[in-house]
Amino acid sequence: MIGHLRGIVRHKDASRGMVLVEAGGVGYEVAVSLQALAEIPADGEEVALWIHTHVREDALELFGFPTQDERGVFRSLLSVPGVGPRLALTVLGGMSLADLVETIASRNAKGLCRIPGIGKKTAERILLDLADKLPVASRGAEAGAAGAAPLSDAAEEAVLALAHAGFRRKQAEDAVARVLADDGVAELPADQIVRRALALLVGRRG
Predict the structure, then answer these.
(1) Whether residue 93 sits in one domain with residue 114
(2) Residue 45's pLDDT band (boundaries 50, 70, 90)?
């Protein structure tokens, strides 16, 4: 089994959630979450990923993670009935690892259901099975945001939408915070926040 992979990024495919990593003259297709994909360096640069090898009768698939904590949460998700590797990646891609662990630990079904593709029944199964079982190390991951005010429902929805559009969680949060600050209000509808935040983010890229 492959447990860790270090090599050169040859191609990133956001539509498939895949990165092609060349190591030792061999190109490995590795599935990654949207959160992880945003952190993968540009083509031609080196990347190191912790790997979960998923073996099926007709295929061998590699799933990659920037940290062992993220791989641990992924494997915990696989233990939930009805959650396969692709769905587990969808869950990981919906928010930062620290936010996801906190959402599950606090039994926040509504927060999980904000992730596209996660319905109420799936969210309830995840909470039932994992609320008290996630790796302890992950509960402290990315704890640098301690003390920050929690996002409103609309702001969190906007951040998730921006993350699924390919922006880093921190980028999305900063843009949403700036939109609300510029308007001098604590709340706006999520669709308005997304439009204004996109204008800021696209402007920065230009």
Answers:
(1) yes
(2) very high
